[in-house]
């Protein structure tokens, strides 16, 4: 298994270009199942999760062709309605084929996504919403089996604004008979990106970007061409890299309007930030200051930036209290950060971080995607050499991270184990 090695302590300087968003590309790829014909997707990031999604859709009969700067997705004929265990276990977002499959072929058989490092992550809200639309659901041998003759519009109130749950229900509703209203819908910008792709396919959706989505079902959808939004979490991670190395970085092609909570917190922590259209210039304005953060559904501070922000706080002056409200086990990076000398005490869903003068490089092990990013950041900010093991987690969600960081001056490389 590959590892990433970092010789830390170099302030990053230069420009970095943000890739397409993983969490928008995955539901949009799933949504291509809704319409026979050839779709064109632009700005698709080159990530392990995208390769897994292509395998999963390929298994259902979808064909792909690489275009210069894009991907052609041909969903003309579906030959299966099953998402097998082997593919679902490596990528939870595989569950996103459930809504489109019941909408297009009236049935789906999906391996139940298991618990993972960051929490239990059940899909009860996806299933309850689909049942309200007339889908018969049974659980057998670790698989969800879903069948429906005709999807019916419904009024759905989500107990929690689940991101992929909202996406699954939206993708089912666009081809249902009549009107569907999804209340307490998640408002993450990637859902708006999916909704805009669905509109380009001919769907009738009102309330995009809000917590009430109203969908008037249509008889059929047609293939569409769409450019995937840039990745706000990747952009936030490069902000953190500039902060922890006391560097000066320009982040280009950033989804600035969706980064408000993140930019506000970094500014409060003492970074100098200026924004020009889709570019963010960030430089360290003296010392970092400990600030408190609480993760929340969008537009609050994203849980997918919690580990990276915590890492920056390990070198700030004073104390920072970090509260995780979305996932019950998302502090797996703490024990590894402590190996580099961080002072962090966890109690329930709160981590109290007392800034230290310096971190020292050490071998560490990545446990999930954003934990991996946080360990890379810690390595960049530490004295001496850090080795991050189990980088397959990182490759799920960051395109060419060591190449992009090297171009900013970091001493970072990948070694084959
Ligand atoms: C592919 C993708 O877009 N992944 C993102 C998505 O994950 P995902 O869509 O899995 O996250 P959810 O919004 O569904 O989960 C939020 C919380 O709701 C709970 N829950 C969810 C569904 C359900 O049926 N029942 C239930 O109890 C979960 O266990 C969790 O505690 O949103 C998360 C929260 O912003 C991000 O961290 C992930 O990067
Ligand atoms: C938790 C994440 O992804 P996923 O939902 O795909 O596991 C993430 O992107 O941080």
From TrEMBL:
It catalyses: phosphoenolpyruvate + UDP-N-acetyl-alpha-D-glucosamine = UDP-N-acetyl-3-O-(1-carboxyvinyl)-alpha-D-glucosamine + phosphate. Phosphoenolpyruvate binds at residues 22-23. Residues 8-405 form the Enolpyruvate transferase domain. The active site is at residue 116. Pfam families: EPSP_synthase (PF00275). Pathway: Cell wall biogenesis; peptidoglycan biosynthesis. GO terms for biological process: cell division; cell wall organization; peptidoglycan biosynthetic process; regulation of cell shape; UDP-N-acetylgalactosamine biosynthetic process. One of its GO terms (molecular function) is UDP-N-acetylglucosamine 1-carboxyvinyltransferase activity. InterPro entries: Enolpyruvate_Tfrase_dom, Enolpyruvate_Tfrase_sf, MurA_subfamily, RNA3'P_cycl/enolpyr_Trfase_a/b, UDP_GlcNAc_COvinyl_MurA. Cell wall formation. Adds enolpyruvyl to UDP-N-acetylglucosamine. This is UDP-N-acetylglucosamine 1-carboxyvinyltransferase. It comes from Desulfobacca acetoxidans (strain ATCC 700848 / DSM 11109 / ASRB2). The gene is murA.
């Amino acid at each position: 298994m590959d590892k990433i090695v970092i010789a830390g302590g170099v302030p990053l300087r230069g420009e970095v270009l943000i890739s397409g968003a993983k969490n928008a590309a995955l539901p949009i790829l799933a949504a291509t199942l809704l319409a026979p014909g050839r779709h064109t997707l632009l700005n698709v990031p080159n990530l392990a999760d995208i390769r897994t999604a292509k395998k999963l859709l390929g298994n259902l009969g979808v064909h792909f062709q690489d275009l210069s700067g894009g991907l052609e997705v041909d969903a003309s004929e579906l030959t299966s309605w099953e998402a097998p265990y082997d593919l679902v276990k490596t990528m939870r977002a595989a569950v996103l084929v459930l809504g489109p499959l019941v909408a297009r072929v009236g049935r789906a058989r999906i391996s139940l996504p298991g618990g993972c490092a960051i929490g239990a992550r059940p899909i009860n809200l996806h299933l309850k919403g689909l049942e309200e639309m007339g889908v018969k659901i049974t659980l057998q041998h670790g698989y969800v089996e879903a069948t429906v003759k005709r999807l019916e519009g419904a009024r759905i109130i989500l107990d929690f604004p689940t991101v992929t749950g909202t996406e699954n229900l939206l993708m089912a509703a666009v081809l249902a008979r009549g009107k569907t209203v999804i209340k307490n819908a998640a408002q993450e910008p990637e859902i708006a990106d999916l909704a805009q792709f669905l509109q380009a396919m001919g769907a009738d959706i009102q309330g995009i970007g809000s917590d009430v989505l109203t969908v008037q079902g249509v008889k059929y959808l047609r293939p569409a061409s769409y450019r995937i939004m840039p990745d706000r979490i990747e952009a936030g991670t490069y902000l953190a890299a500039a902060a922890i190395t006391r560097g000066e970085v320009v982040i280009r092609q950033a989804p600035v309007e969706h980064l408000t909570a993140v930019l506000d917190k970094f500014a409060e922590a003492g970074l100098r930030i200026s924004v020009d259209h889709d570019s963010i210039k960030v430089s360290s304005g003296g010392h970092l200051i400990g600030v408190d953060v609480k993760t929340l559904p969008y537009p609050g501070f994203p849980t997918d930036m919690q580990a990276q922000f915590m890492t920056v706080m390990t070198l700030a002056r004073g104390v920072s209290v970090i509260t995780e409200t979305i996932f019950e086990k998302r502090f797996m990076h703490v024990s590894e950060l402590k190996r580099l000398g961080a002072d962090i005490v966890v109690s329930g869903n709160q981590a109290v971080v007392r800034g230290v003068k310096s971190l020292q490089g050490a071998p560490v092990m990545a446990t999930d995607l954003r934990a991996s990013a946080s360990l890379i950041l810690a390595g960049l900010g530490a004295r001496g050499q850090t080795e991050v093991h189990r980088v397959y987690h990182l490759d799920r969600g960051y395109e060419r991270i060591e190449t992009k960081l090297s171009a900013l001056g970091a001493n970072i490389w990948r070694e084959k184990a």
